[in-house]
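tool_call predict_complex ligand=zinc ion
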Amino acid sequence: MDKFQHDGWCPICEKNETFISEHSWFRDHLLCSGCGSIPRERAIFKIIKDYFPDYKNLMIHETSPGVRGASIKLQKECIHYTTSQYFPSIPSGSTHPSGYRCENLEALTFSDNFFDVFISQDVMEHIFNPEKAFKEIVRVLKPGGAHIFTVPIINKTKKSERWASMSDNGEIIYHHEPEYHGNPVDAKGSLVTMHWGYDIASLIQEVAKMPTVIIQIDDIDKGIRAEYIDVLVSIKQY
Ligand SMILES: [Zn+2]
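tool_result ok
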């Protein structure tokens, strides 16, 4: 396709920038000329600011942060922003040679009621036991705190489907042809375990008692236009 170009205002740069794509698949290619972010990163950052205008002073944790966009901005601006990555080879809570704290979303080592905001960007489709992960996330959130995240809801109105799971003895069970997404800390990529549908919100309510809204933004003037860029906000009630 011809190069797409649109002048607008980037929620991450917080100034006028140009959004440019050389490909029709905007999800991975509609880049901000200022920060290099993609649409879902601008969407989640806008939602973080909308829901938590005081985010710079809050206790924020991000699992598997990105290498640009919202993650870098939060790192720069938030005094209490921390991150972790999952390394199966080392104990949770310890520090990997890469400098990252190791945390397994299904068994976090943080205390209860610890964070105001828990962030994940395209992570929840790679968890073997997402039910356990949602329970852990609600446990470490303070009442009134939120899990704000992006996840590709590729099944849309169809039911969520388990794509891969793990047996009790640690073997991976493939229910369908294996799929992988790029992972900055693992060259093999991350195995896709879930094809989510909009029923993800009911599952979170059921297992973690967190009401969840699914926010779909289409706002080309903020560079937010693409498939599968829903932002989910789950609030801890008590
Ligand atoms: Zn930008």
